[in-house]
Amino acid sequence: MAGIAVETRGTIATLTIENVGKRNSVTAKMWHRLPEALSELASDPSVKVLVVRGAGADFSSGADIRDLARILHAPGMPDGGLVTVAENALAEFTKPTVAAIDGFCVGGGWQIAAACDVRIASDRATFGITPARIGIIYPLSGIQRLVSIVGPATAKYLLFSGELISSGQAVSLGMLSQVHPAPGLWAAVDSFAGMLASRSQLSIQAMKQLVHAFAAGEDAAAIGDAWQGEAAASDDAEIGAAAFLAHETPSFSWTGSGFVRRPVV
Q: How many CB atoms sit inside 10 A of residue 2's CB?
């Protein structure tokens, strides 16, 4: 049955795209569900890291072709419809996100992966951005994010050709952070997510918002000031310094409770 599944183990949540018989294509109902699931995870103080993956052997083949009109042209939605709303919700998720990619990661599937902070793939993963194959225009948000990741020239090549590329090619283009042999992918993802969960979430969330502000050409000074004030009021710096001097692993205490983040406009 197609759907979006969420599982939490300790401080790490996993969001799984499930439509296995169709390479995890994403239906209109599933695109609707993504922002709702992200909102629930954002408000859960026990969750420090989110892993996004596909069920079975694929990440996602993108938007369900049979649902394409409802997905891309939903009434009252921005350009790109439900895809853009879901993609932006994932990009704006305050906690660190890791896309764990095996098999096909194509079209709207790539938009989901691209909206994550870090992308880790297996050596058998396949990537493609395929609107020119079916006569549609990729959503503005997806084009903008692609250009920011790979640059204009490579974005044109991927968008114009619709060609599928390997994980080796994708990592060379800057689309991926790590590539692992397929049998070791999930162990590598678990290890990386666990490492992120052990870090100061104040540091990570502050720097994530600041990176986004710089990438958007926004003035990050006010955002930085707000975060510096939050850092001064927290115990994380003292905890980290004490653990470093004692050669111990720090147990950071900041959870973000009560802190109001300045929005990036």
A: 17
CA-to-CA distance for 264 and 205, rounded, in angstroms?
A: 13
How does DSSP assign 68-111, residue by residue?
A: HHHHHS-TT--TTHHHHHHHHHHHT-SS-EEEEE-SEEETHHHH
Residue 256's pLDDT band, with cuts at 50, 70 and 90, is confident
Residue with tokens 């949540």: 13
Q: Please write the tens of the pLDDT for every residue from 41-98.
A: 999 999 999 999 999 999 999 999 998 888 998 788 888 899 999 999 999 999 999 9
Q: In what order do the strands lie in the sheet with 3-9?
A: 3-9, 12-18, 49-54, 97-101, 118-122, 178-180
Of 48, 49, 3, whose CA–CA distance to 25 is shortest? Answer: 3
Instruction: At 145, list the tokens.
Output: 């994010």
User: 260 by DSSP, 3-state: which?
Assistant: coil
The SS3 assignment for 165 reads strand
Structural contact between residues 87 and 130, judged by C-beta atoms closer than 8 angstroms: no
**Nearest residue to 146 via CA among 92, 34, 154, 78:** 154
Angle at 32 between CA 130 and CA 151, to 5 degrees: 35
